[in-house]
Design a protein that fits this description.
Layout lengths: L1 H12 L4 H14 L1 H11 L3 H29 L3 H11 L3 H8 L4 H16 L1 H15 L8 H4 L2 H14 L8 H18 L7 H6 L1 H24 L4
Helix pairs in contact: 1-2, 1-13, 2-3, 2-4, 2-13, 3-4, 3-8, 4-5, 4-6, 4-13, 5-6, 5-7, 5-13, 6-7
């Protein structure tokens, strides 16, 4: 919540229109391109604003992945703290796994849990923005229900419930794990298709500055949390 509010404020201070500032803020605070794509129809963002926000976020996400292991080593973090740092700062789930991997399996598992909780915030954020948009819209017209509740969040919660309740036979878990690993690898590789350095130039200096400052804010908040939070 703090990252979204402050990121939006930075965007407005640097001259971005309200929708663009909100797209960049949500992308940095939650889960990058997925958050931007989910929030865009809720706030009725323009196509060029969505493209610019996604373009720079894709490039910046790679830089964050490379920086997390470096920052973790400089700060002397153990595997758990590296995982928390990755989960709080990196955009996409596959990128979190890549950023935490140098610190070991514990870092990967911790990073995945922290990141997935962060991703789950996309549901409440879209719902709140949708309700705000409905109040502002003339004639009560606002975003539809499927725009305010991202379906992949609902499916994730459903599958998590099925697994937690023990409704999956133990015999199918190993094959599922193989499938999960394969799909994760494909997702990590597919991120490369979204990375275009030219997108930085197309996005413009103000969007680049806002995205970079928002990412720096997230990193600062994460380091601050790690400094005060006792981790076993």
């Amino acid at each position: 919540a703090l990252a979204i509010v402050v990121g939006f404020g930075v965007g407005r201070a640097l001259g971005l229109n309200p929708r663009m500032a909100l797209l960049v803020a949500c992308g940095n605070a939650i889960c990058g391109n997925s958050a931007i794509a989910a929030v865009a129809p809720v706030i009725e963002a323009e196509g060029q604003d969505v493209a610019a926000a996604i373009g720079f976020t894709a490039v910046l996400g790679i830089a964050v992945v490379l920086l997390v292991p470096v920052v973790g080593a400089m700060m002397g973090y153990d595997a758990t703290r590296v995982g928390v740092l990755a989960g709080l700062t990196v955009y996409a789930v596959p990128q979190v796994l890549a950023a935490a991997a140098p610190a070991g399996l514990a870092a990967v598992q911790t990073g995945a849990v922290v990141k997935l909780v962060r991703v789950l915030m996309l549901g409440p954020v879209c719902l709140i923005l949708g309700l705000m948009r409905s109040k502002q819209a003339e004639g009560g017209r606002g975003p539809k229900l499927h725009q305010m509740a991202p379906w992949f969040i609902l499916v994730f919660l459903a599958l998590m419930a099925v697994r937690s309740l023990g409704w999956l036979p133990e015999a199918i878990l190993p094959p599922l794990q193989v499938s999960v690993s394969a799909l994760t690898l494909i997702a990590m590789a597919a991120l490369g298709l979204m990375v275009d350095p030219r997108a930085v130039l197309r996005a413009g200096p103000r969007v680049a500055a806002v995205a970079a400052l928002s990412a720096l804010l997230i990193g600062t908040l994460a380091v601050g949390v790690l400094a005060v939070m006792p981790l076993g």
